[in-house]
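Internal tracking record. Fields below are filled automatically when a chain is submitted to the structure queue. Please do not edit lines marked as system-generated. If the sequence contains nonstandard residues, flag them in the REMARKS field before resubmitting.
Queue: standard
Priority: normal
Entity type: single polypeptide chain
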Amino acid sequence: MTTTAEQLSATTLLRFATAGSVDDGKSTLVGRLLHDSKSILTDQLEAVEQVSLSRGQEAPDLALLTDGLRAEREQGITIDVAYRYFATTRRRFILADTPGHVQYTRNMVTGASTAELAVVLVDARNGVVEQTRRHAAVAALLRVPHVVLAVNKMDLVDYAEPVFAAIAEEFTAYAASLGVPEITAIPISALAGDNVVEPSAHMDWYGGPTVLEHLETVPVSHDLTACHARFPVQYVIRPQTAEHPDYRGYAGQIAAGVFRVGEAVSVLPSGRTTTITGIDALGESVDIAWAPQSVTLRLADDIDISRGDLIAPAADVPPVTQDIEATVCHVADQPLSVGQRVLLKHTTRTVKAIVKDIPSRLTLDDLSQHPAPGQLVANDIGRVVVRTAEPLALDAYEDSRRTGSFLLIDPADGTTLSAGMAGAAFASVAEAVAQADDDAEWDF
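SYSTEM-GENERATED OUTPUT FOLLOWS
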């Protein structure tokens, strides 16, 4: 007889993030999703009911299931990224509930950076607003392959189909212009539960899936083994003991792809070539290893390798450069300025760098580029040119979300300044269509 644990281990995993403007009902949607899918414990629900009653509310405020900070509950807004883990018989989920307030847009970058799907909420009464466009732009920049437009509070517009249709058309056109490959619009009422887990009896004009049904059935292809093989070295193991006098191994987590014993590899940025003579995983020797396994590689030649070097197949190496053109989401309160000295962290490597230029800042209203802004402030999205003190082996972000991303850090106090994505800012519409046809190309 199959146990519940065995059933869950056989299901796929979907990482998704939620985003929406303040008071769009995002926390209520997440709470409704957890409640109606029976993914919360009895004592959790009882605690929410007690707090709701103490506030004079007749029904439990499901937003309290996700807004855990006292400031969040007092203000009725989401401030921090909250991660929730739940499962159905069809799929397991990791949900990143991100803030909607413009002040915390940067938190969405954190929550959506590993997401395969983003749920963007819109209040049916307000339609697409600037923050909606901002969230769509962040999802496009982060190459999130699936976006769900959840038009919430349909009960407050009498479940009118024309209202939903107009919002869906506007958002779809905007997101498609950013290169988002797949957009699914769903009319919902998180408060009443319409089309969240169960189909709505008030919107017989809608024949599409509920939110949960779409989450359970959307194609998820995050097979890292099909991507360019990349192994950032995290630690050099050199025990020099009587038992292992000559052992030298390079430990880390495979970022993408597959490595095999006997394969010719290059060590970057030096460019030296050698062969894999052994792979150790969980204390045993294996012939093959794949992402995201943590392993130790043993090489045929004694090459000078240290933390931050990148091992890749000799026939498929990323470009090595000191001049990086990228799009960044600025996340710090202090601005990022031309001429500023920073640290750049890429995989396990951290190098000194200088911001040579900020060519443009993205205007979200019409997607125009504001030229030469001079600096980026909190929540700005812009293009930067960075010169590093040492060469880096950097993929384009569109080829690899893991080895095409980096952080800019304040060397004075270690504060993260910007999250960067190397290469082109947005995928073209033609590229988006092609990627939607072949999700296996996405690298997570």
